[in-house]
Design brief:
Residues 321-464 form the Aminoacyl-tRNA synthetase class I anticodon-binding domain. It is found in: Cytoplasm. This is Glutamate--tRNA ligase. Monomer. This protein has helices spanning 19-33, 53-66, 81-93, 104-116, 183-193, 206-219, 249-255, 259-268, 281-287, 302-315, 318-331, 339-352, 359-365, 367-370, 379-383, 387-401, 407-421, 425-437, 445-465; strands spanning 6-9, 38-43, 75-76, 97-100, 141-144, 151-156, 160-165, 173-175, 198-202, 225-229. By secondary structure, the protein is mainly α. The chain has three domains: 80-229, 3-Layer(aba) Sandwich (Rossmann fold), CATH 3.40.50; 243-362, 3-Layer(aba) Sandwich (Rossmann fold), CATH 3.40.50; 379-465, Arc Repressor Mutant, subunit A, CATH 1.10.10. Strands 1-2-3 form a three-stranded parallel beta sheet. Glutamic acid (GLU) binds next to loops.
Length: 466
C-alpha cells in the first residue's frame, strides 16, 4: 500500500449524475475514507461540445445530496490541456512517441486495403520509424510507440488478470494535429499528477486501461491499482436504462428517498460484506474493501431500496430527519416548514418515521402536523363525520378537555366513553382521525393528541363536532 490512499471520481459532465456514477463515487469515497485517504473529484470536461456547466452543477448537487464530500478543489480536466501536451512532447523527445503525418484519408485508405487483403485493420503508421529528414512541412499528430510484442497485463482487483496481446494495440494518438491532447492521455496525466493510487470505475473502461498502461510505462510512472466494477443492470438482467425507471440521482432525491438509505443501497449494489444488508456509514467505511466487489453485474431492485430506506428513516435521529425533510421540501420546490410547524414535526417524528420509506410517505402521515384549522377532511374522512359521529364527538370533547394530558389518561377517558356508549374503540377512532387530521389513515389518535397538545386537539374536535 502506498503512504496514503488517493481515489478519485472522474465524471464526464454530459447530463446528470447517473446512478451508476453515484455508485462509483460512493465506492471511491468509502475506500478512501476507510483508509485515512483522500477522495478527489475531477470533472472530465475535455469534450467541450458535450460538456455543460449545468451538467457539472448536477454532479456537484448529486454528490452533495449523497453526502460524498471530496478533498481539495474540483479539478477541471480541460484546464490541464497544456500539461497534457507537455507530456506528449516529452515522450516525443525521449523517442517513445513519434510525429505522424498521416492524414485521415491516408488512414482510411490503409484500412480499406487491409480489409481487402484480409489483414488486421489496426493502423500501422509509416512514420513510426521514418527518418526525420523525410518529414514534410505539414501538420502532424503525436503517436505513442506501442509495444508490438508480448502482452499487457492489467492486474485488476475485481476482474483478476486481464491479458491483452500487444499486437492488438495501435500506436494511439496522444496529441492531435491541432495540438489538442486526447482524452486517454489526459486521464493518465491527471491521475498521476493528482497522486491517484487506486482507480475504481466502471468496467466499460477496462479496455482503456490497457491503452492507459502504455502511457504509464512509457513515462516510467507507477501504475495505480485498478478495480473495474461491473455495471448496474435492471431487474430483468439487462443493462440499466430509462425504461427500468429513474437513472439520475436527482430523481431519487425528488422521490424523497433519504440519502443514508440511498448510500446503503448503492453500497450493496455490487459489493457485499457477508449477509449484511442494513448498515450505517461508519460500518460501510470500516467494512468496504475491493475484494467484496462482485464480478457479475448487480441488479437494481426498487423494493430493496425502499426497504433499506425505511429502516434508515426509522433509525435516524429526529433532528437530522427534520433537517433532511426541510431539504427535501426545498429541493422539490415546496415551502419548508415554518418554525412552529418544524417544532411540531420534530415532536411528531417518533410516530411518523416508523414505516415511512420516503419523505412523501412521511409527509402523508404528518398531515395532522402540516394542516391548520379548519381541518379539511378528505372524501373518506368525511364519511366518518356524519351527524351521529359529530354528536359523539360533541359529547366526548368536554371529557377529553378535562383529562390529564398523558397517554394513559387520554386512553382511559376514550375507553370509558366507548364502554359507556356500548361502542368499540375502533368506532370512535375514525371520527377522531377525521377531526384531527382530516384523513382516515393516520398515526394513533393518542400520538396525534399528545403532539398537538390540549388546546389544538380540543379546538379541532370542536370544529368537527360543530
Ligand atoms: N469520465 C469517465 C466517465 O465518466 C470516467 C473515466 C475514468 O474513471 O477513468 O465514464
Amino acid at each position: 500500500m502506498p503512504d496514503q490512499v488517493v481515489t478519485r471520481f472522474a465524471p464526464s459532465p454530459t447530463g446528470f449524475l447517473h446512478i451508476g456514477g453515484a455508485r462509483t463515487a460512493l465506492f471511491n469515497w468509502l475506500f478512501a475514507r476507510g483508509r485515512g485517504g483522500k477522495f478527489l473529484l475531477r470533472i472530465e470536461d475535455t469534450d467541450r461540445a458535450r460538456s455543460t456547466p449545468e451538467a457539472t452543477q448536477a454532479i456537484l448537487t448529486g454528490l452533495n445530496w449523497l453526502g460524498l464530500d471530496h478533498d481539495g478543489d474540483v479539478v477541471s480536466q480541460a484546464a490541464g490541456a497544456e500539461r497534457h501536451a507537455e507530456i506528449a512532447e516529452q515522450l516525443l523527445d525521449e523517442g517513445k512517441a513519434y510525429k505522424c503525418f498521416s492524414t485521415s484519408e491516408d488512414i482510411t485508405a490503409f484500412r480499406e486495403k487491409a480489409r481487402a487483403e484480409g489483414r488486421s485493420t489496426l493502423f500501422r503508421s509509416p512514420w513510426r520509424d521514418a527518418d526525420p529528414a523525410t518529414y514534410p512541412d505539414a501538420p502532424f499528430a503525436i503517436r505513442i510507440k506501442a509495444p508490438r510484442e508480448g502482452e499487457t497485463v492489467i492486474r485488476d482487483q475485481v476482474q483478476g488478470d486481464v491479458r491483452i496481446r500487444n499486437d492488438q494495440l495501435d500506436d494511439m494518438v496522444l496529441l492531435r494535429g491541432d495540438g489538442s491532447p486526447v482524452y486517454m492521455l489526459a486521464v493518465v496525466v491527471d491521475d498521476h499528477d493528482m497522486g491517484v493510487t487506486h482507480v475504481i470505475r466502471g468496467d466499460d473502461h477496462l479496455n482503456n486501461a490497457a491503452r492507459q498502461m502504455m502511457i504509464y510505462q512509457a513515462m516510467g510512472w507507477d501504475v495505480p491499482v485498478w478495480a473495474h466494477i461491473p455495471l448496474i443492470h435492471g431487474p430483468d438482467g439487462k443493462k440499466l436504462s430509462k425504461r427500468h425507471g429513474a437513472l439520475g440521482v436527482e430523481e431519487y432525491q425528488q422521490m424523497g428517498y433519504p440519502a443514508a438509505g440511498m448510500r446503503n443501497y448503492l453500497a450493496r449494489l455490487g459489493w457485499s460484506h457477508g449477509d449484511d444488508e442494513f448498515f450505517t456509514d461508519a460500518q460501510a467505511i470500516e467494512w468496504f474493501s475491493l475484494d467484496g466487489i462482485g464480478k457479475s453485474p448487480a441488479r437494481f431492485d426498487f423494493k430493496k431500496l425502499g426497504n433499506l430506506c425505511g429502516q434508515h428513516m426509522a433509525a435516524m435521529d429526529d433532528a437530522a430527519l427534520l433537517h433532511e425533510l426541510q431539504d427535501f421540501l426545498r429541493s422539490t420546490g415546496q415551502p419548508p416548514l415554518d418554525d412552529a410547524k418544524a417544532a411540531l414535526m420534530k415532536q411528531a417524528m417518533p410516530c411518523l418515521k416508523e414505516r415511512a420509506k420516503t419523505f412523501p410517505e412521511l409527509l402523508e402521515k404528518a398531515v395532522f402536523v402540516t394542516s391548520t384549522r379548519p381541518i379539511e377532511p378528505d372524501e373518506k374522512a368525511q364519511k366518518s363525520l356524519d351527524s351521529v359521529s359529530r354528536g359523539i364527538l360533541g359529547e366526548l370533547t368536554p371529557q377529553m378537555r378535562n383529562a390529564n394530558w398523558t397517554r394513559e389518561d387520554l386512553e382511559a377517558v376514550a375507553n370509558a366513553f366507548a364502554n359507556d356508549k356500548g361502542m368499540k374503540f375502533g368506532q370512535l377512532a375514525a371520527p377522531l382521525r377525521a377531526a384531527l387530521a382530516g384523513r382516515s389513515a393516520t398515526p394513533s389518535v393518542f400520538d396525534m393528541m399528545l403532539v398537538l397538545g390540549r388546546d389544538e386537539t380540543i379546538a379541532r374536535l370542536n370544529d368537527a363536532a360543530a
